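Section 3.1 - Work completed
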Amino acid sequence: MNSAIFSKRLKLLRLTHKLKSNTLGPLIGSPGKGSISRLENAKNNPGFIPLTGLAEFFAIDLEWLVGRVNKPYREEIISYEEKNLFPIYANIEKKSVEILPYQNLLSLPEDYVDLTLRKKTYSLALRADIIFLSRYLKYIVEDDPSVLELSEYLPLILRPQSENKSEGKRALLIGETVRAKLLTSLDESSYLKCYSLLYSIFYVKKLAPIDQQIPVFNIMVSKEQ
């Protein structure tokens, strides 16, 4: 394993996904204080748990992480991670709460549910984004269940347009009333942001040809890949 490349790619993953070190640690099974910083600075060699945790949580090729290949995504890995991904439940106070799909506001499109259509519609990078956002959303809710109070904004985020004119006017009215608060919450809340980004992938980003799709977290734009 090339420790220097691993350190760079670990930091690239963290920064591209806009995660703090103390947030990334628990996500990959390495919650100790300063553990991620030591790995990024090549002061510690990664153990089995953080290595496999990174590969699983971000749906990336372990071989890419350790510098043996240059492409982070592989169909076999992405498909494996997708197998039992949905539905996603958050465990809160001994109860399971379904967070994806979310009520009738965010369902899984048919072109994602069907694997054959999924391969034709979503790039590997977008599929990896979906896996990460879904798992991160579960972590967010279980870590701080109070974020569920922000769910009142989800109808505005996940249904920005309405086919019914009267509902559309009402939505616009509500939007104008709470617009400032909503924008602030979106900017500050990872919970709302995950839903917003998933919506964008399922209904906007997938519309581009696969070779022109721009992922939410583009780890391939860095020169340190």
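Second construct:
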Amino acid sequence: MRILMTEEKEGDAYTVGALLAVEGHAVAFCHPHGGAHHPCVGLSAVGRCPLLTEPVDVVVDVRIDGGPPTAREMGATCALRHTTPLLIAGSAPDASTLAEGALFACPPDAVTAACAGLDDGRRA
């Protein structure tokens, strides 16, 4: 399964993404590692948006703190615009487009099981 990771705060997506990669998923990131000055990889000088380069099965938005949506979560908004399924790892922001458009939210430590269940459902 190809999974695109985005995050509420810099660095949050990398731990969850590593766990998904260990499970055999192909993982891409909306933000280049250490690229806090770029809004996303698609707007960096060397990258292209993963939603535009290859099919993405699900976008995972990692929200450890659970506050209001941040600019680092634009990948979640892009997922909704592209009709790519969105899974929120953590607390969905109250009364937001992200909360309304997400398939579901789960604790960050349950993301691997949630993605496995989504993948199983797609194969059925």
